[in-house]
Design brief:
This protein is mostly beta strands. Helices cover 7% and strands 39% of the residues. The strands form four sheets. Strands 2, 10, 11, 12, 13, 14, 15, 16, 17 and 18 form a ten-stranded antiparallel beta sheet that branches. A four-stranded antiparallel beta sheet has the order 6-5-4-8, with no helix packed on it. It has a three-stranded antiparallel beta sheet with strand order 3-9-7, with no helix packed on it.
Length: 326
């Protein structure tokens, strides 16, 4: 029994001696300097397709928007409202700049639904200026702002599949995806004759309208962001049916790409952070962006392909708090 107590006391002394030794300093994990980039990526090359899946519905007489083909001044053509769809592309407005006219035309199978701007107002390229109504069945898909920037360019192709119905089939896109304000059609100039009333005042009655001239002239309601397309003529459609749309807006062969997390922006102009120097610090530069598949984005200009890029990409500066006065 005494021997066991002695061994235990000796072991305790050894442990205490190890804990109090100053010959081995305590180890602490090393830390990188503040601002040092730890995660990086290099640009890569790949074939890229911008493909988006949307859900929509079959709709009767869907409204869509037509945009200004150039910046300038919009001047509308005086046309009587009609419920009869046009059988050829029909001129409804002109954008003038430096004496050069650029026509705005509604497509075959539609009617003009409204003016979206004041006559002779300045407009920018791509701004919705006319609303039109496709007469008959169309397919409408509402989209959110994140999807809008991926399909804001020209739509290359749309395939549609009606739930428990026809498809897949090609669906022809019409108009712009931009949200539309309310469209207005001005009152047509009187074209009929007036007759005096029977009472002595002689007040004229309303002009006699030409057959079919005023129908469809109530203008158009505002819309949100949405895509409108038209199915082939022989496709059997039922109003309100659910539809899945597969939208392709562009393809690029052997494109220079970066992960979307490394880029600020997803369309047009963007920014990335280069990692430079031995201390691996960031330098923000501008780049021109192309299409995206939601995982990577095309870099059209600004990089050559051998750079080291920080992940995540640059952030917008945080706005300063408002100063409270009082």
């Amino acid at each position: 029994m005494k021997r066991r107590v002695g061994v235990t006391a000796l072991a305790a002394a050894v442990v205490l001696s190890g804990c109090s030794s100053e010959s081995e300093p305590a180890q602490t994990p090393g830390l990188e300097a503040r601002g040092t980039v730890l995660t990086t990526v290099k640009p890569a090359r790949k074939d890229l397709t911008n493909q988006i899946s949307l859900t929509g519905k079959v709709t009767i007489n869907p409204v869509f928007g037509l945009v200004a083909p150039a910046a300038g001044e919009i001047r509308y053509v005086d046309r009587k409202p009609s419920s009869n769809p046009v059988d050829r592309r029909t001129w409804v407005a002109t954008v003038w700049k430096d004496g050069a006219p650029r026509r705005v035309e509604i497509p075959i199978g539609s009617v003009m639904a409204g003016r979206l701007m004041e006559d002779r107002a300045p407009v920018s390229k791509g701004m919705p200026v006319v609303s039109a109504k496709h007469i008959g069945y169309g397919i409408v898909a509402d989209i959110d702002s994140a999807q809008a920037y991926r399909i804001s360019g020209s739509v290359e192709s749309i395939k549609a599949q009606i739930k428990n119905g026809p498809g897949p089939f090609e669906c022809e896109p019409v108009g712009t995806i931009a949200a539309l304000p309310a469209g207005i059609l001005p009152e047509p100039e009187p074209t009929g004759t007036t007759k005096p009333e029977a009472n002595p005042s002689g007040k004229p009655v309303a002009p006699v309208e030409e057959p079919g001239a005023a129908s469809g002239g109530e203008g158009s309601e505002p819309t949100g962001l949405r895509l409108v397309c038209v199915a082939p003529a022989k496709t059997r459609l039922i109003n309100g049916s659910d539809v899945t749309l597969d939208v392709i807006t562009g393809r690029a062969k052997n494109a220079l790409v970066l992960p979307v997390e490394a880029v600020a922006g997803l369309s047009g102009k963007g920014k990335v952070d280069l990692v430079i120097g031995d201390d691996r610090q960031r330098k923000t530069i501008d780049v021109e962006l192309g299409i995206s598949d939601g995982k990577v984005v095309q870099i059209k200009k600004g990089l050559v392909g051998n750079e080291t890029i920080a992940v995540p990409g640059p952030n917008l500066p945080t706005p300063a708090p408002a100063e409270v006065t009082g």
